[in-house]
Amino acid sequence: MELGSVGFIGLGNMGSRMANNLIKNGYKVAVHDINCNVMKMFSDMGVPTKETPFEVAEASDVVITMLPSSSHVLDVYTGPNGVLRCANLMRPQLLIDSSTIDPRTSRKVSVAVSNCILKEKKDHWEKPVMLDAPVSGGVLAAEAGTLTFMVGGSEDAYLAAKPLFLSMGKNAIYCGGAGTGSAAKICNNLAMAVSMLGVSEAFALGQSLGISAGTLTKVLNTSSARCWSSDSYNPVPGVMEGVPASRNYAGGFASKLMAKDLNLAATSVEEAGLQCPLTYQAHEIYTELCRDGHEIEDFSCVFRHYYSGKDEL
User: Fold this and answer.
1) Res. 160: pLDDT tops 80
2) What does the H/E/C string look like for the chain?
3) What is the arithmetic mean of pLDDT over 225-232?
4) Which residues are catalytically annotated?
5) pLDDT by residue (tens digit) across 295-306?
6) What is the pLDDT of residue 313?
């Protein structure tokens, strides 16, 4: 597959950094975003900017999207000026959506893409193909080019796209058919939320029973409860340096984004008809945190604001 020119749509905190890494790695990139300021920033760097998603598609062999929600994704692909506007004569062979959205929407867009026809058939590609490829690692990993991509769709397309993923990240994991990349992301963030709540609850209880968070951290991290929330992203201010808890919960992964991802998980649970009480409880807690004014603080702030945990002096 010829992946010479790349179109990038969605230049927010994540997308702008991912697009930059593609440019650094020698890809010819054209960009689009609804934010004029960020478009100007790219055009000042000499990067071609396009007025609509459709214009990006017309100029690109591959289109990558990084958007805030399912409705944005549907609009960018299937809207009046969307990527798929010229469905019978499409230029891009490969479409990659790195947004965190529900698996159902990923599958819906994938079906729409598979009904399109390529303007020029190259290699053995008869039709354009879609991959859902959300990421883990946040803004710092996007900046450093160390993201992990979770990829759903055709395995051939995944293999063809791997050099692109490894220009923006350090890992790409093939998850299965359409929608499984989105499913993997939702499941990862559900587990991350529940483990953060469990660890925060344990620290708050420990403090009220007279054991300091620093000491309990040593216990957890040499025992069976050890996990990422205890050993790499500790939520108690004063226990660990370099984490959001050490800077008043600034930066990191915003509570409002966690609430959004838990909402996606809750929707998927309902569709699957499963018993998942922790999904609902975690979603409720993070929704409450946001309502109480902590939506832009890192999600580990649940220790302070929900459990009323104390800083380690």
Assistant:
1) yes
2) CCCCEEEEECCCCCHHHHHHHHHHCCCEEEEECCCHHHHHHHHHCCCCECCCHHHHHHCCCEEEECCCCHHHHHHHHHCCCCCCCCCCCECCCEEEECCCCCHHHHHHHHHHHHCCCECCCECCECCCEEEECCEECHHHHHHHCCEEEEEEECHHHHHHHHHHHHHHEEEEEEEECCCHHHHHHHHHHHHHHHHHHHHHHHHHHHHHCCCCHHHHHHHHHCCCCCCHHHHCCCCCCCCCCCCHHHHCCCCCCEHHHHHHHHHHHHHHHHHHCCCCHHHHHHHHHHHHHHHHHHCCCEHHHHHHHCCCCCCCC
3) 97
4) 185
5) 999 999 999 999
6) 84
